[in-house]
Design goal:
The protein folds into 2 domains: 9-207, Rossmann fold, CATH 3.40.50.720; 215-447, Rossmann fold (3-Layer(aba) Sandwich), CATH 3.40.50. It has 447 residues and is α/β, with parallel strands linked by helices. A 6-stranded parallel beta sheet has the order 3-2-1-4-5-6, with helices on both faces. Strands 11-10-9-12-13-14 form a 6-stranded parallel beta sheet. A two-stranded parallel ribbon has the order 7-8. The longest helix is centred in the middle third of the chain and has 32 residues, at 209-240. It has 20 helices and 14 strands. The structure holds uridine-5'-diphosphate-glucuronic acid (UGA). The site of uridine-5'-diphosphate-glucuronic acid has 22 residues, from α11 and α13.
Length: 447
């Protein structure tokens, strides 16, 4: 289905299938690099919103990039696979791979669904580039499917490493680019796509399918392990009367260890780290390599224990009883600078406290709409001071900058009791104590 326009274009024309955090960012950023881009989503409302220059989620900088490139005529969105195939010849698959319900494994139905919908419209020479996080072996399966349904179409695996909150920056200036290919032709086309980055000196690693797929889950597993390591140290610090924040700083100066991702606290959540380590364990089991990843089960357990530990600590701080108490949660999203509440530690804790009989009021600068959709029974407020009114306890659960800027003396005027748990270890403990607060910070000494 090569249209005359498609054959004569000078600039590369790309498509991006799926417009979630990954896809919408990739589409806008590829346009920012000067390519002509078409994005596809099966949800017409999302497509309309994106075409009007609005991003259906909160991601700093993204809306400006999108609007600039819509105005320049470099990016547009559609629901039609035929239009996408007619417009572009390199197709990025950016759909979600959530955890399957009732299993640790990833649900890859959206990936295969996208490939099956696209295949009948593709032409020989087209490239299908997978960016979604998938179980190792998926790229090979897609290549097998396309061999039959779209002969002459090649597959590339090109994992994405962007962080929410920094998605634009991470896409335009990634630490590295990884492509799994099976032919020199596919490699050179990927070099053309990423030429502006390669010219800047960003490492470009060329490998096979399984390695490319594994790089992504290995990276996320390492990051999750680092966080759980420091949270395990926090548990020991609490028992020993030591300070995990100082410990992290001290070990972080060792360049072999590094100081990033050593933030002890409520642990990791979101749509990636938790489900990726579980899917990796499930896939390793299928491959007969289960034993290699048993440590990830412990990483997951340590992480989940942070949430129950915070609930226990809240109970303790409130004299052993949560029923009838008012608790204000500062934060609902899984991390700051995002409106994403998927597997949010903050909300998990909020729900557990509410189930134990507390009245829980949740504040978040960007996440209350999404949170209310998932947990409609909690109370929400977009004003931190109002959310804290009459609280017996505040829990600092997501480290938005705004919470660090709160004046403890001002907050003291609206609460019933001056109790606060810093579950992210980002508050100035001394300043809060000086203002008369009983502050408990996870993994830090009590006084
Ligand atoms: C993560 C990876 O960092 C990205 O490289 C990857 O591309 C992405 O998953 C993905 O697979 O798509 P993201 O989920 O946006 O990115 O969030 P992170 O910044 O990794 O944070 C994950 C969680 O760990 C958050 O809940 C955060 O609060 C927590 N965290 C992070 C800590 O508890 N301590 C830390 O020191 C750092």
């Amino acid at each position: 289905m090569n249209s005359p326009t498609k054959q004569t274009v000078q600039t590369l024309r790309l498509s991006v299938i799926g417009t979630g955090y990954l896809g919408a960012t990739h589409a806008a950023c590829m346009a920012e690099l000067g390519f002509e881009v078409i994005g596809l989503d099966v949800v017409p409302e999302k497509v309309d919103l994106l075409n009007s220059g609005k991003v259906p989620f909160y991601e700093p900088e993204l809306e400006e990039v999108l609007q600039r490139n819509i105005a320049a005529g470099r990016v547009k969105f559609t629901t039609s696979f035929a239009e996408v195939a007619d417009f572009a010849d390199i197709h990025f698959i950016c759909v979600g791979t959530p955890q399957q319900s009732g299993s640790y494994a990833a649900d890859v139905s959206q990936v295969f669904g996208a490939v099956e919908s696209l295949a009948p419209h593709l032409s020989p020479g087209d490239l299908v580039v997978g960016k979604s996080t998938v179980p190792v072996g998926t790229a090979e399966k897609i290549a097998e499917i396309l061999k039959i349904s779209a002969p002459g179409v090649e597959v590339v695996w090109n994992p994405e490493f962007l962080r929410e909150g920094f998605a634009v920056q991470d896409t335009l200036e990634p630490d590295r680019l990884v492509v799994g290919v099976t032919s020199p032709g596919a490699e050179s086309r990927m070099r053309a796509v990423y030429a502006p980055m390669i010219e800047k000196g960003i490492p470009f690693l060329v490998t096979d399918f399984p390695t490319a797929e594994l790089v992504k889950v290995a990276a996320n597993s390492f990051l999750a392990t680092k966080i759980s390591f420091i949270n395990a140290m926090a548990e020991v610090c609490e028992s020993a009367g030591a300070d995990v924040v100082q410990l992290a700083e001290a070990i972080g100066y060792d360049t072999r260890i590094g100081n990033k991702f050593l933030g002890a606290g409520l642990g990791f959540g979101g749509g990636c780290l938790p489900k990726d380590i579980r899917a990796f364990m499930a896939r390793a089991g299928e491959l007969g390599a289960e034993e290699a990843l048993t440590f990830l089960r412990e990483v997951d357990q340590i992480n989940l224990r942070r949430r129950s530990h915070t609930v226990d600590l809240a109970r303790k701080e409130l004299g052993g009883e949560l029923r009838g108490k008012t608790i204000c949660m500062f934060g609902a999203t899984f991390k700051p600078d995002s409106d994403d509440v998927r597997d949010s530690p903050a909300l998990d804790v909020a729900v557990a406290l509410a189930n134990a009989g507390a009245t829980v009021v949740v504040h978040d600068p960007k996440g209350t709409v999404n949170a209310e959709r998932v947990y409609p029974t909690l109370t929400y407020s977009t004003d931190a001071m109002k959310a804290a009114a009459h609280a017996d306890l505040i829990i600092h659960a997501t480290e938005w900058m705004q919470y660090r800027e709160i004046d403890p003396a001002e907050l003291a005027k609206v609460v019933s009791q001056k109790n606060i748990i810093d579950a992210r270890n980002k508050l100035d403990v001394a300043a809060w104590r000086a203002a008369g607060w009983n502050i408990r910070a996870l993994g830090r000494p009590t006084a």
